[in-house]
Amino acid sequence: FFFDPKMLPISRHGYQTIDNADMQSTSQKLTGILAAVAGVALTVGAVVGVGLFPGSSAVQLKSSTMTTPRPFSQGLRTVTGSGRQIPSGLHQLNARPSMSRSATAADGLLDASLQVPGVAAAVDSGLLVPVAGVALVLLGAVIGGYAAGRQQGGSMEMASVAAPPDDEVEVKAPPPPMPVRATGDLGACHNGKHLSAEAKAQLEEICALIGTPGKGITACDEGPGTIGARFEAVGVENTEENRRLYRQMLFEAPGCNEALSAAILDPETVYQKNDSGKPFPEALMEIGIVPGVKPHLKVYTLPGQDKSTVMQGLDSLAVRCREYAAAGCKFAKWRSPLTIDVEAGQPSDMVIQANMNDLARYALICQDEGLVPIVEPDISLVGDHDLETAVYINVKVQSTLYKAMLDHGVFMEGAILKSNMVNPGKDCPIPYSVEEIAQANIDVLRRCFPIALKSANFLSGGQSLEDAAARLSVINKIKGDSPWNLSFSWSAALQMPLFQLCKETGELQLEAMSALYSKELKVAAAAARGEYEVKGTDGAHVPK
Prior knowledge:
The protein is α/β, with parallel strands linked by helices.
């Protein structure tokens, strides 16, 4: 039962190491116990043996002497058949009584009386057994101690009899612990371990600027085709110069930087300049508005998913983000649109997972290139679903998003949420007050929105400015001690009324548009502070 524990197999599961310490400890104890039991058993046997043979003596010794009148060498004779010589006087043992005078070295061997003890030893087993038992006990203790030392990897040494003074004892440092290496899924949820402390600090700084209380985001990231359609609807020609002039008006409207913390730009706008020749990102940053970008994406319809879609554009995202950062952008935004269709079972788990994984991967890439990711799961107002259905689907979508971000190792403190407001479908036949809608939004946030994300900026998603402002204001009034900044990131709610000023003129009415835009921004900022006064049924869902 002795073995070398170093030969024990070592099993590794993920970052855990099982070193069979329990097996070693058990074997050590077993070795000592068996040795002790063997010694005790033999000792008991010895005691029984003594009791069985009480009259026997341990050793009987008889001695006799012989006289050697001639040199000792002459008293040798040959033993028949052996070829060996032995003193002949030995054959006279017990022939006469012992002499009183014993041989000494001074008398000399030649003329002294040679006394040769004749030993007739009668050894009794009653004595040998206890002696052997004691010896085995000692042997067992030594073997047990040796085996114990072996089972501890040879790291323990036998203590010496005389221990050195305390001040002379050399204290050996314990061996360094085995390094923990994450394997498989254990590498997830590391919250940006690949980022330097400086990179994380920069991301958090931008998030803090974007999440400035009482301010929000202007979303002017429509591509040339989308903004061109709005121009053409009011008779304005869709040219690059008209697009530049229109965006310049949005960035230079009086007091805009008092209501805006950030602006989302189309890639075309990132590389355009204002009338002074300054790139728009630089000009925005100078007035305290953080510039960001919406990378070009393509919509792909997933087969077999009732026209549900995903956005494509991850392949070259890192290169594009690097270029946007070099052009002065501080963040990027990715939108994943979803639609609730209860009868069709949409959005399905597959659709949700595919879109949220894309958002998480986009966020990971953005942060690696120095850009804050704004993640935008956008559930459309289209449909006839009720508010309760909207709540649980929004919780499902957002919780899947945050789980995906964590699994991808996204630095959560360096990201911003832009999501739809939780609303019943446009065609829902059930009426809801603005307070009920606001409470539904707070419920979704409290159930799944991480505290690590400092700001949630709601998109308008087809709501009018009055409805969106009323709902946002009530949300902020009832959020209580919720730790987040809850604000806006609006496009259509702010911009669609501006185009109406251009009807029948064929030109951009930049001055009038700027004045109206400034008023709208004041409404949005008041809603972000919870100070917008709701009028009539603004913000309520009234069935048509």
